[in-house]
Design goal:
binds heme C, mainly alpha, 177 residues, globular
């Protein structure tokens, strides 16, 4: 009996892996959880390619790595924000797609590190630097449009599966567009 159950769980995980997603829509706590579980870092500086491996391992101790990978957080200095308000004003209109702050990843990594049993430790600083770089590359500039459509897909799927939780996370958004 135990063996059959374990087999079913393994099969379920394998099916999710084949779809390239972390979790079923009904079991997800964040829209992030429904998205891809890897980043193509082949064009990133060597230092960040190394940190990516640490990030993949340490930030997946309590939830899947999909949660930080598909996050709406973007950390931009005040000067960078001012520049992007001119170049990409749309980025400042929908915080469910782009939530922008000068210290947003810094604060968030610290929040994760304060949780009991968090294994991040001394890697916190370089993981934070990786997240700042990666968010800028994948969610802004030439990739802003692609990011918006992939994030909106997750929001729509999540809102359908779990409207109450969606509303709790994004009270100012009436419904996923
Ligand atoms: C010790 C367990 C633990 C570890 C390790 C951990 N997290 Fe989390 N994470 C959580 C929990 C629990 C939540 C749910 C929200 C909360 O309690 O803050 C969460 C939520 C999140 C969210 C969603 C937040 C939102 O409001 O949209 C992001 C993004 C995230 N974690 C990123 C990370 C990153 C990056 C790392 C590695 C530096 C990490 N987590 C490591 C426990 C952990």
């Amino acid at each position: 009996m135990k063996g059959i159950l374990a087999g079913a769980i393994v099969a379920g995980v394998a099916a999710a892996a084949r779809r390239g997603v972390a979790q079923s829509a009904s079991g997800a706590l964040f829209p992030n959880d429904l998205g891809p579980t890897s980043i193509d870092v082949s064009s990133y500086p060597k230092e960040y390619q190394e940190t990516y491996k640490v990030f993949q391992f340490k930030c997946a101790a309590c939830h899947t790595i999909a949660r930080p990978i598909n996050s709406q957080y973007v950390e931009l200095s005040d000067a960078q924000q001012a520049a992007m308000k001119t170049s990409t004003p749309e980025m400042f209109k929908d915080p469910a797609v782009w939530q922008i702050g000068a210290h947003i990843w810094n604060r968030y990594v610290k929040k994760m590190m304060a949780k009991p049993g968090c294994p991040v430790g001394r890697d916190g600083k370089r993981i934070w630097q990786f997240l700042v770089y990666d968010s800028k590359v994948r969610k802004t500039g030439a990739n802003a449009v692609a990011w918006k459509s992939s994030r909106q897909k997750l929001l729509e799927e999540f809102a359908k599966a779990n409207p109450a939780r969606y509303h709790e996370l994004f009270p100012s958004t009436v419904a996923a567009k």
